[in-house]
Amino acid sequence: MTHDDAAHTHHEAPERHAAPMVEEVTDFEVLEIALRELAIEKGLFTAEDHRHYTEFVEQIGPAPGSRLVAKAWVDPDYKQLVLRDPIAASREVGIDWLHPTGFGTPSDFTALEVLENTPSLHHVIVCTLCSCYPRPLLGNSPEWYRTPNYRRRIVRWPRQVLGEFGLFLPDDVEIRVEDSNSKRRFLVLPVRPAGTEDWTEEQLAEIVTRDCMIGVALPKPGVTANSPRPVHPAVRPAEGY
Fold this sequence. Notes:
Layout: H1 3-12, H2 27-41, H3 47-59, H4 63-74, H5 76-84, H6 86-91, E1 111-116, E2 121-126, H7 135-138, H8 148-153, H9 158-164, E3 174-179, E4 184-189, H10 201-207, H11 210-214
Parallel strand pairs: 1-4, 2-3
Helix pairs in contact: 4-5, 4-10
């Protein structure tokens, strides 16, 4: 191979681009990082505080809420406390509603209301503004709870949306949609299902899923996890989504 051939071959070799070191950072991630670093710089909390809180958020789940509901089903006096003073009742299942993390500043969740379902009344919760949710009792909200299609449609067509979750209520059952906000959160107390009269509190807690306490499902013997949500087009989608 002559020098010219080698030069020509080298010239035609395909370019090689190095793979990016990290995935692209979104605008929201940039905003979160900037806000977090500014708060640490101003002394609102420390990096260690942030680490502790992140670990706390990642490990919480719906178990406290499930225990609260199960205890209310078997203990009439506790049920009255749940409906009268749910913040006090939450302490009995290990959750300090006003100081849920056990460190840092007090929570801004200053009000909690438990909504009792009956055979003729069914509650479902939503946050039409964003994603306000009773995290100390239920953990982090599911993705569908935060979507505009759920937030906008559940208040207008509750029966249709509940039907999309597989929950079909009789026409004579009234549906009430409660709108959470930054200061007021809700938890649904479902009707205890038939066939569980001799169950222990621990057995009952297993069938009280997160979706039951949001109001998009009913507790059923044998069902101990949230059902997978099929993806399908909404009949009346929120415009633009």
